[in-house]
Write a structure and sequence with these properties.
Helix 1 packs antiparallel against helix 4 and helix 1 runs parallel beside helix 9. The protein has one domain. The chain has a five-stranded mixed β-sheet, sandwiched between helices. The protein has a two-stranded antiparallel ribbon with strand order 6-7. It is elongated. By secondary structure, it is α/β, with parallel strands linked by helices.
């Protein structure tokens, strides 16, 4: 086990954080108004008594982007976790289905499924993760009978009061980052590097976002407003009519 150098983490983030920001802007450029209207619940927005095109467009756009960004940033944090574990424990990206990271400490081999936060999945998704762990254990267990294989669900933020789930361990937030690095303060130390060029990148994003809002607002007013009022029947038909 090697000691983690925070400068290595900083260098990794500064080199790779741009991919997250680029993905945000790319996601904006690929959007279409009708695509968003078809994916979101029109009844919810009607119940919120939204009356103007711009407010509705921004509400739809923000809801769509929020879920996308959570996924994109989760992928970035997964890469960061694998990098850190590689530096400390010779961890590597796993080839096993549903397993993101594997590494060995002493006589224990850990297989890790990395998620953003603790409330990432429903019962079916958790059952699928457990099944993937079992399959990976069977495959890895054929290599040696002396290795104890432990499955871990690692979450980049949050807390977990009962980490032992029987079939696997669940480590969240501070516990997860310490588990892969040996550094109990890493969960705090990574905050500052993650802000690398954040203002510059967010200014660029906001320009692209404003352009999309203006374009979609004009398009929405033309196609889904009648005499200056939002035509909810048209929206619901686009969203739900067979």
């Amino acid at each position: 086990m090697s000691k983690l150098k925070i400068q290595d983490v900083t260098d990794y983030v500064e080199t790779n954080i741009g991919s997250f920001h680029a993905a945000r802007i790319q996601a904006l450029s690929e959007l279409g108004l009708n695509k968003i209207l078809q994916r979101k619940n029109p009844y919810l927005f009607k119940a919120k008594n939204i009356l103007t095109s711009e407010v509705l467009v921004k509400t739809l756009l923000d809801a769509h982007l929020s879920s996308q960004e959570e996924t994109m940033f989760g992928q970035f944090l997964e890469g960061l976790a694998i990098f850190i574990c590689g530096k400390v424990n010779n961890g590597k990206k796993s080839a096993a289905e549903g397993v993101d990271l594997e590494f060995t400490k002493g006589s224990v081999k850990y297989i890790v499924a990395i998620k953003s936060g603790p409330n990432w999945g429903n019962s079916s998704q958790i059952a699928r993760m457990v099944d993937n762990f079992k399959k990976a254990k069977r495959v890895l267990g054929t290599n040696t009978s002396k290795t104890n294989i432990v499955a871990v669900n690692g979450c980049c933020y949050g807390k977990e009061g009962q980490p032992d789930k029987g079939d696997y361990m669940k480590y969240c937030g501070q516990e997860f980052w310490e588990f892969i690095s040996g550094n109990p303060d890493l969960y705090i130390e990574i905050v500052e590097p993650l802000g690398h060029k954040a203002k510059e990148k967010n200014d660029e994003f906001q320009k692209a976002y404003a352009q999309i809002v203006n374009t979609f607002t004009a398009e929405f007013s033309k196609d889904f407003c009648t005499k200056g009022h939002i035509d909810w029947q048209k929206i619901v038909e686009l969203n739900s009519k067979k």
